[in-house]
Amino acid sequence: WMEGVGVRWVMTDRAKKPEWVDADLPSVNLMLGYLAAALLVPMFVFGIPGGVVADRVNRKKLLLLTQFLMMMIAASLLTASVLDKASPTFLLVLSALQGTVMAFNIPAWQVLYPRLVPRDELPRAINLNSLQFNLARVIGPALGGFLLAYSTSLLFAVNTLSFVGVMAAVAFTPDAPAPKRETRHPFHEAMDALRFVFRRKGPRRVLWGLVVYGFCANPVLQMMPLFITDVYNREAGAYGILLSTMGVGAVIGGLAMRLVPAWYPRHHLIPLSVFLGGLSIVLFAAFPSFQLGAAFMFFVGWFWLWSFSIGFTALQLLVADEMRGRVLAVSNTLVFGAMSLGSVAAGAIGDFVHHFNGIANPQALGVQLGVGIMALILTAAGFVMLTWRTPEIDDLKPGDPGFESAPGFWRGITGAAHRPAPTGRPEPPMHEPPSVG
Q1: Which of 9, 284, 329, 410 is deepest in the core (most CB within 10 A)?
Q2: Residue 166 burial (C-beta neighbours within 10 Å; 0-12, 13-18, 19+)
């Protein structure tokens, strides 16, 4: 998270310099969109091969290798910053290399912890993983914003050293060899995963929900430096505060899962999270106030975690372990591809508005409209998903209790069709995160 903060901030600074603007090069809106695409397109291209590799090799060794390569990329970024050679082109190239390595790193992480915990503990393990990920979102941006106030090189130096701790933690985890199974040609194994995802209604609907969320929600992260500089007229420290607020919301949202009743199914909870996440981003983009932006960003983080955590939990519970890496790789591929396209689309909207004459502060308005329009699409998608629900997400079949439920937005929110008759005894929370310590 520190690295992302620094790279987006440096890109914003370089693309707003007079020599860049006077040369009629792409606007800062587009450059931030291109930066997202440079990171995410390689993950789209290599995502499925990365999942095949994660299913075939020792996941622990793969993690150690990919973490080492990312540390080398971070060291290159540090060197360029010290030598003042971190040009926009260099940042795009380095982000593309980072995305390539992450295409193999992410499925290795995702298939590691299901091998380390029993299946009935898997939802809690996934939620705990999301919590620690978002704790990093709290600490990383806050530290990044603090370090930016002193030096971008200092930020990149701390980021490079942080990989040592991650590699040490991975080194002390139990070994995670690939499950013994009959191996086939990688192409056929990848096709098995594609057939599983697209021919089964439950996984397919979960995946489309994640793709829509990635496409429409990711611009708020990519364009956040422009909210700081052009909408709020603040300095680098405010960037870290805003991202940390999002992380705090995500952590509290993860802990709040224990408040969701056990009977409330995922095929209601996922679209509800999508709808509320889109609405939170709409409100964030609508008001040019840093204080209000921080308040709405808290809820953006909350429902960001719910959407992705619950969505990927549903996928993991629907797939067998020997295919998990490939299925998650298919999902990652499409989600990351959607994220890159969404960021470019939001940047294009902002760039289009920026060229209108007679508008007061067109740069700020363009950023707000780019993020806000994408968020309105997300809100509408959540409304549709919540009105016409998909019980197959919970692996329900025709004839199972709760499979048949009349369409309706309010019915989707309340989940009344699934509410059990009162028994006088409280039920254990289905979505409760694991206790720590």
Answers
A1: 329
A2: middle
| Residue pLDDT, tens place only, 51-102 | 778 777 777 888 899 999 999 999 999 999 999 888 898 999 999 999 899 8
Q: For residue range 413-437, list pLDDT tens digits in order.
A: 998 888 887 654 544 444 544 333 3
Location of structure tokens 């150690």:
64
**SS3 annotation, the chain:** CHHHHHHHHHHHHHHCCHHHHHCCCCCHHHHHHHHHHHHHHHHHHHHHHHHHHHHHCCHHHHHHHHHHHHHHHHHHHHHHHHCCCCCHHHHHHHHHHHHHHHHHHHHHHHHHHHHCCCHHHHHHHHHHHHHHHHHHHHHHHHHHHHHHCCCHHHHHHHHHHHHHHHHHHHHCCCCCCCCCCCCCCHHHHHHHHHHHHHHCHHHHHHHHHHHHHHHHHHHHHHCHHHHHHHHCCCCHHHHHHHHHHHHHHHHHHHHHHHHCCCCCCHHHHHHHHHHHHHHHHHHHHHCCCHHHHHHHHHHHHHHHHHHHHHHHHHHHHHCCHHHHHHHHHHHHHHHHHHHHHHHHHHHHHHHHHHCCCCCCCHHHHHHHHHHHHHHHHHHHHHHHHHHCCCHHHHCCCCCCCCCCCCCCHHHHHHCHHHCCCCCCCCCCCCCCCCCCC
The pair of three-digit structure tokens given for residue 51, joined into one six-digit string:
């999942």
CA separation for the pair 51, 329 (Å, rounded): 5
Burial of 103 (0-12, 13-18, 19+ CB in 10 A): buried
Q: How far, in Å, CA of 367 to CA of 121, rounded?
A: 42
Sign, CA dihedral 196-199-203-207, equals positive
pLDDT in tens, 116-138: 666 666 666 666 665 565 556 55
- What interhelical angle do 88-112 and 321-354 show, nearest 10? 150
Q: 104, 112, 102: which is closest to 170 by C-alpha?
A: 112
Is the pLDDT reported for residue 281 higher than 60? Answer: yes
Instruction: Please state the rounded mean pLDDT for residues 240-265.
Output: 85
Whether 381 and 216 have beta carbons less than 8 Å apart is answered as yes
